[in-house]
Design a protein that fits this description.
Blueprint (H helix, E strand, L loop, with lengths): L1 E2 L15 H8 L5 E3 L11 E2 L17 E6 L18 H6 L6 E3 L6 E3 L2 E6 L5 E6 L14 H10 L7 H6 L5 E8 L2 E6 L6 H6 L6 H4 L6 H4 L11 E2 L5 E2 L3 E6 L19 E6 L3 H10 L4 E3 L3 H7 L5 H4 L3 E7 L7 E5 L9 H10 L2 H8 L5 E2 L22 H10 L4 E2 L5 E2 L7 E6 L2 H5 L2 H11 L3 E6 L2 H9 L5 E4 L12 H4 L38 H12 L3 H18 L2 E6 L2 E7 L2 E2 L19 E2 L1 H12 L9 E4 L6
Parallel strand pairs: 2-9, 4-14, 16-28, 21-22, 21-23
Antiparallel strand pairs: 1-3, 5-6, 7-8, 8-10, 9-10, 11-13, 12-13, 13-14, 15-25, 16-25, 17-23, 17-24, 18-24, 19-20, 26-27
Helix pairs in contact: 11-13, 12-15, 18-19
């Protein structure tokens, strides 16, 4: 909802930083502006997210210790720099930090974080924020508006030894930060996009009082010093047991604890993260109640190691949960190389879509637990195609398309051939040995043979396979790329001819817009289909330039359809849920979790019932049941 702006009462701000920091600001006068309170535009439309519903449970209880594990002791407690990207970071930063605004995890929109109100300027790339005056760091110091300036000083510093951050937060992307008064600032991004608020809110304030200035000793000096946080959990030095465990504790009197979208969250008093290197040992500790939960995504865990008739499940001590989320998934699919002499024919490619039997794979290799992927861009909400589905296996339709391409005769070996005897045969590569062990490649090969295609399976060591694929030397490959939760899918990298061929765009197509032959494949891009289509190129260019969400949505639907028609991407499977085993004292809201959760405890909406824990542990000792067995499927967000 939008709100009437509160009258600005803020005091003007003066910079009082260390000499090195002052020199950094002075060197970029275009990038750092200290304005006067009266300079704030008066015609802004302020928003505050009040139209959104809370997603935590009013039944939540505070207290207890949540028992977690990590497979490797963190090499540093820094948030940036060498080794800062380890698994432990999510506890300290990703699932803990409070940003200016937070993306709403049950759909579109944002809720207040460090800012209680925000407004997008008419240029569509400058966002104004009013800070919550209550915001305080875990060391008791208040958030200062100049900490946003300091955040850029740090992210651009060579001393942090983090080139990715140096580039991402460069002044080519974050062009300007303007401070108006002690609670009001504006940040200008280099382009207007519908998710500009989220991009800009990614600029994290850094506590200047903690660092002062940075030097070449930064990485070493702060290796095991925890930066004061604005989030709910901190790491105190006395809770760091080197090589064994790290316990995060809830910040006393946390400033956001009673705010609308933070109350009833971050409930445990502590999160103890113990180092357990062996997967078998992790599961053992979970069965003993020393760890509160264990992932059950692998069929062997769900069906064999913790079956429904397991003592702990039968007696109600441990719950089994399957939660359907709605997020972009890893893209398990077959990519056909459109530059290949036979696969360059669209009828062959469409025929291959009918020849690859992924329903049989899902049934025989994945116990019908997974679902067929629909399109090239599932999981992007309104930006995904509302009705399109992958082509189902069909011997008849496959042969019909192969015949159009000249493969009309069936050889004695059951493989189609042309009248001059050319067999319909492809090398089928995968970097994933475990898929082959699960029978995936064999099922696809046997089923394809029914349609007259010979697949020569090639299972390669991972590095060698990806090298072959990235050099575009594969014929067809089965693999996946990871995706992140975003507002709209990316098409340029995998499907624009810029990433398929080395030649200039003007030299790729003839006067009629048809792709020329004899072009040079471009290595080391994500264009594994080598798709190159004049019309698709133009749609992608419009899509990349567009700043209007409705237009982006329409173009996304059109592109998904056109890429489907091309037939070079054959959708495989998705795992539309995550599965968890958790002890009954771990409580959760009635829908279990939010739509966009990728892990069970990412949004901190669970809580620990300590009384229940004592009762349950006693019941296991006494060989008694704690209650009825609980095996639950939450499918509120399941797509039809």
């Amino acid at each position: 909802g939008s709100v009437k702006p509160t009258e600005p009462v803020g005091r003007p701000v003066e910079l009082k930083s260390a000499p090195d920091v002052m020199a950094f600001y002075a060197a970029d006068p275009e990038g750092f502006t200290v304005a006067q309170p009266g300079d704030l535009p008066s015609d802004l439309e302020w928003m505050n997210g009040s139209e959104l519903e809370e997603f935590a449970s009013p039944d939540a209880k505070r207290g207890g210790t949540f028992m977690e594990y990590t497979s490797d002791y963190p090499r540093t407690l820094r948030f940036v720099g060498p080794d800062a990207n380890g698994a432990f970071r999510s506890h300290m930063l990703d699932y803990n930090a409070v940003y200016l605004v937070m993306p709403y995890p049950n759909g579109d929109g944002y809720y207040p974080g460090l800012a209680k109100e925000w407004a997008v300027a008419p240029d569509g790339r400058t966002v104004f924020f009013r800070l919550d005056p209550d915001a305080r760091y875990s060391d008791g110091n208040s958030l200062k508006i100049t900490d946003f300036f300091f955040g850029l000083y740090m992210m651009r510093s060579k001393h942090i030894q983090a080139p990715w951050y140096n580039d991402y937060f460069s002044n080519e992307k974050f062009e300007n930060v303007t401070i108006y008064d002690e609670h009001t600032l504006a940040i200008r991004f280099y382009k207007a996009k519908p998710d500009v608020i989220e991009k800009i809110a990614g600029l994290r304030p850094v506590p200047e009082h903690f660092y002062g200035e940075l030097d070449e000793q930064f990485v070493e000096d702060f290796q095991f010093k925890f930066e004061p946080t604005l989030g709910a959990y901190e790491v105190k030095s006395e809770n760091v047991k080197s090589g064994e465990s790290i316990t995060l504790t809830r910040v006393a009197g946390w400033w956001a604890g009673n705010k609308r979208f933070f109350r009833n969250r971050f409930n445990p008093d502590a999160i103890k993260v113990t180092v357990v290197r062996e997967p078998a040992k992790v599961f053992e500790l979970f069965l003993k109640g020393d760890l509160d939960w264990h992932g059950l995504a692998l069929p062997e865990y769900w069906y064999e190691k913790l079956p429904d008739d397991h003592e702990l499940v039968k007696n109600g001590h441990v719950e089994k949960i399957q939660f359907h989320n709605d997020v972009p998934r890893p893209t398990w699919a077959v990519r056909l190389n459109s530059n290949h002499s036979v696969l360059s024919n669209q009828d062959i490619r469409v025929g291959m879509n009918y020849a690859l039997n992924f329903s049989a794979v899902i049934e025989k290799c994945f116990r019908n637990d997974y679902e067929r992927m629909r399109t090239v861009a599932d999981g992007y909400g309104p930006r995904s195609h509302p009705s399109l589905k992958a082509r189902a296996f069909s011997v008849e339709k496959a042969k019909e398309h192969f015949a159009k391409a000249g493969y009309t005769e069936l050889g004695p070996d059951g493989i189609l051939r042309t009248p001059v005897g050319k067999r319909l045969s492809f090398v089928f590569t995968t970097p994933y040995k475990r898929l082959d062990e699960a029978g995936v490649m064999t099922v696809l090969k046997e089923e394809a043979k029914k349609t007259g295609v010979d697949l020569q399976v090639e299972v390669m060591e991972r590095t060698a396979a990806w090298k072959k694929i990235s050099e575009k030397k594969h014929e067809m490959m089965l693999g996946a790329l990871n995706t992140s939760v975003e507002m709209y899918p990316r098409f340029w990298e995998p499907y624009h001819s810029d990433n398929a061929y080395k030649e200039d765009k003007k030299d790729r197509y003839d006067a009629n817009g048809k792709l020329k032959s004899g072009l040079t494949p471009k290595p080391v891009t994500n264009s594994f289909t080598l798709m190159a289509d004049h019309e698709i190129d133009e749609l992608i260019e419009r899509y990349r330039a567009s700043e209007d969400l409705n237009e982006i949505t329409q173009l996304s639907h059109t592109l998904i359809q056109k890429i489907h028609d091309q037939g070079a991407f054959v959708p495989g499977w998705v795992r539309p849920w995550y599965r968890v085993g958790q002890w009954r004292w771990v409580k959760y809201p009635k829908d279990y979790n939010v739509r966009e959760s990728r892990e069970p405890f990412e949004f901190h909406i669970h809580w620990i019932d300590s009384d229940e824990k004592a009762r349950t542990l006693k019941a296991t000792e006494d060989d008694k049941a704690s209650g009825d067995a609980s095996i639950r499927v939450f499918d509120k967000y399941k797509l039809d």
